Amino acid sequence: MSDTQLKPANQDYEYGWHSEHRYKFKAPPGLTEDLIKDISKRKEEPEWMLEKRLEGFREFMQKPMPTWGADLSAIDFNEIIYYLQPDYQKNKNQTWDDVPDDLKETFERIGIPEAERKFLAGVSNQFDSESVYSKLKGAWEEKGVLFFDMDTGLKEHPDIVKEYFGTLIPASDNKFAALNTAVWSGGSFIYVPPGVKVGLPLQAYFRINAENAGQFERTLIIVDKDAEVHYIEGCTSPSYSTNALHSAVVELIAHEGATLRYTTLQNWYSSVYNLVTKRSKAEKNARVEWIDYNGGSKATMKYPSVYLAGEGAHAEIVSIATANKDQHQDTGGKAIHAAPNTTSKVTAKSISFDGGRTSYRGLIKVYPGMENCKSDIECDALMMGPNAESDTYPYMEIEDDTAQIEHEATVSKIGEEQLFYLMSRGLTEEQAKRTIVHGFLDEFERTLPMEYAVEFNRLVDLQMEGSVG
Amino acid sequence: MSDTKHNGNMLEIKGLKGGVEDTPILRGIDLSVNGGEVHAIMGPNGSGKSTLANILMGNPRFHISEGEMYFRGELLNELEPDERARLGLFLAFQYPSEIPGVSMDKFLRDAYNSVKQDSVSVGKFAKKLRKKMDDLEMDESFASRYLNEGFSGGEKKRSEMLQMAVLEPKLAVLDETDSGLDIDALRIVAESVNKLKNPEMGVLVITHYQRILQYLEPDYVYIMLQGRIVEKGGPELAEKLEDKGYDWIREKVGLEG
Ligand SMILES: Nc1ncnc2c1ncn2[C@@H]1O[C@H](COP(=O)(O)OP(=O)(O)OP(=O)(O)O)[C@@H](O)[C@H]1O
Ligand SMILES: [Mg+2]
């Protein structure tokens, strides 16, 4: 049949791939104060950043591991390599022919453009779409938009970075935010000046050109008054990581009347712990949207949050997760209503395949005196297969009587009657399950730009392969 | 020997017993249907009509304890529902499922391609679908709506008929498709069945009312009681039921209410 036909299920099929990179510099495993000083020196950072890193280090050493959420007991901090500087010159010698066939096939099926595949496979350090990028870049620069990898951002605009860095997520926030503060590398830095509306989504292309990308990246986005931007990070290709830990920090600041959408699509290699802190602040009449898809990984803990600081601000959080066998996605979102007449909407959808677990964890907080706040929470979990698990932890701290909170939660097993109905129309069991799953995610897919929607679609199919058949 | 087992009939059900979980419902059904014929099954609530339809289509909630079902020469008993659909069997459900997020047109194209083993283009299929929807006087907006989601009772029944019209089955089982339809909708639905009917196609219609039978003109009418077919006749049997109800037949076969 056509390309919609799945190949036989293979439980052990892994998307990740380890290419033998060479490095300019590779730190020994484990974290020490000296290493942090060394990182900062190699990056030629200002003194204040080193101070922040050291503060992060101290907090990290003090803070206990979280005792809730996913099981993190297998993480051994002494085994982790905290800093790597790949040497792209040397890696250049590798060619497309050296890439294993199964990885090529995965790229093919996910529909990653050739140019990107080379990068993702580690045989190229930049996209051939560089020229397209430069053109766009020209347009942004004209309008005064700053878009750099975080290391460059710090070099070129230290004042802006200093003003905002760590203001929403201080090192003391949690153990993994502290760790990120200590060892961060890469990530994006964006500043959009007042009134500027960036039409096309900014994509985190060159973010992955940054050294040691994806491990402990740090992102800071500031959207000034009445400005507008949509940022997309990640791609649906499996992100292979040499380390077992991915711990990013993302801070978003939306000034008065600004609109900021942050879309993440991530599919981590199945051994990775994905522990990310994402927080944003929405000033008066600003709108912040987190759109977050998490797939893969061993365990993910991620709860994008919005601090509604100004009257009329709106938060939109869409959290989507799929968990395969032995994976735990502990995800959700938080909306903190710290100003009157603020609104939030949280939509969480998760699918646990056989042997996988999804948890929704969310917080809605309304401070006393913050009148006429509204929040809508909808969480739907779909379980497929006999050993799929799903649970929800919705926390509410509503301290003002005028608040209107709506919470709707459904947990459903993939319906036998629905499957039978579709199969009675000629769909195979695989097709029927896929139809139900894609239907479940349809609303989310519609929020994605076309090319991402296509990739996401195929990714979900791939994820189902292990559980269907 | 196998060609004699189904006596050359398109559908041949022999000594079928089955039910749901530990509950036996069907207590021995014999029935055969051929192309060009219309058969009607009537019977009081709970007599097992939908159970028969579901077992015929292969609903995994039900089981067969005895007997065989042959369709176009193939033993159905162990076939998956999609395999039965590909053989040309179609069930219009009494209570169709709702599938959120799945648009009618996309679903119908997948179903069409699967049943017909085809890969029709989006554009070509859209035309085909439009035509079938016109026949059923369905607003074109239904094509992009999610499958049965939020449909009214009557709209769901029409959606079933649309699916049937698209898939062009060899045998259509209509489980109370007429229930819940307004008078105009009933006529439209019945006409769509008649339009699809051809000498190769059989229809097995389950109903409580004579009205749809006036359109479909059944060759045979059966009465089902407590999991058995207890009476067989022509259209006059349906009239008799409409007049007299079921008490006479219960008495005749010696069953209490
Ligand atoms: N899942 C089930 N569990 C237990 N009993 C069931 C189940 N499904 C059906 N039954 C029983 O089987 C019997 C036959 O049901 P069925 O739906 O086949 O009747 P029907 O003839 O289609 O009735 P109606 O005219 O009301 O549609 C009923 O007594 C019903 O309660
Ligand atoms: Mg019934």
| Count of individual helical segments of chain B | 10
Give a count of the beta strands of chain A, DSSP E runs of length 2 or more. 21
Query: Unreliable segments of chain A (pLDDT under 50, ≥5 consecutive)?
Result: 1-21, 88-93, 121-134, 205-213
Largest interface, C-beta closer than 8 angstroms, per-chain residues: A-B, 27 and 32 residues
Rounded radius of gyration of chain A (Å):
22 Å
Report the average pLDDT across residues of chain A.
Answer: 82
Number of domains of chain B: 1
Strand content of chain A: 25-35%
- Report the CATH C-level class of chain B: Alpha Beta
N-to-C SSE string of chain B, H for helix and E for strand: HEEEHEEHEHHHEHEHEEHH
Biggest sheet statistics of chain A: 11 strands, mixed
**Which regions of chain B have little confidence, pLDDT < 50, spanning 5+ residues?**
none
- Separation, N- and C-terminal Cα atoms of chain B: 42 Å
Name the helicity range of chain B. 25-40%
Number of helices of chain A: 12
Strand order of the largest sheet of chain B: 6-7-8-3-9-10
Radius of gyration of chain B: 18 Å
The count of DSSP E runs of length 2 or more, i.e. the number of strands of chain B, is 10
What binds here, in terms of ligands, is:
adenosine-5'-triphosphate, magnesium ion
What do you see in this structure?
- The complex is a heterodimer of chains A (469) and B (257).
- With 469 residues, chain A is an alpha/beta fold.
- Chain A folds into two domains: 23-302, no CATH class; 417-469, no CATH class.
- Chain A has helices at residues 33-42, 47-62, 88-91, 101-110, 114-120, 130-143, 150-156, 158-164, 175-183, 416-423, 429-445, 450-465; strands at residues 23-26, 84-86, 146-149, 188-192, 202-203, 218-223, 228-233, 245-246, 249-254, 259-268, 273-282, 287-296, 299-302, 305-308, 314-323, 328-337, 343-352, 357-366, 374-383, 389-398, 404-413.
- Chain A is globular.
- The two termini of chain A are 17 Å apart.
- Chain B has ten helices and ten strands.
- Chain B is 39% helix and 25% strand.
- In chain B, helix 6 packs parallel to helix 7.
- Chain B has helices at residues 2-5, 49-57, 81-87, 104-116, 122-135, 153-167, 183-196, 211-216, 235-244, 247-253; strands at 11-20, 23-33, 38-42, 62-71, 74-75, 89-92, 171-175, 202-206, 220-225, 228-233.
- Chain B has one domain (11-253): 3-Layer(aba) Sandwich (Rossmann fold), CATH 3.40.50.
- The N and C termini of chain B lie far apart (42 Å).
- In chain B, the strands form two sheets. Chain B has a six-stranded mixed beta sheet with strand order 6-7-8-3-9-10, sandwiched between helices. In chain B, strands 2-1-4-5 form a four-stranded antiparallel beta sheet.
- The longest helix of chain B is centred in the middle third of the chain and has 15 residues, at 153-167.
- The A-B interface holds A 1-2, 4, 415-418, 420-429, 431-432, 435-436, 438-443 and B 57-61, 80-82, 84-86, 90-91, 93, 96-97, 99-102, 107, 110-115, 119, 146-147, 163, 167.
- The complex binds adenosine-5'-triphosphate and magnesium ion (MG).
- Residues 49-50, 94, 175-176 of chain B line the site of magnesium ion.
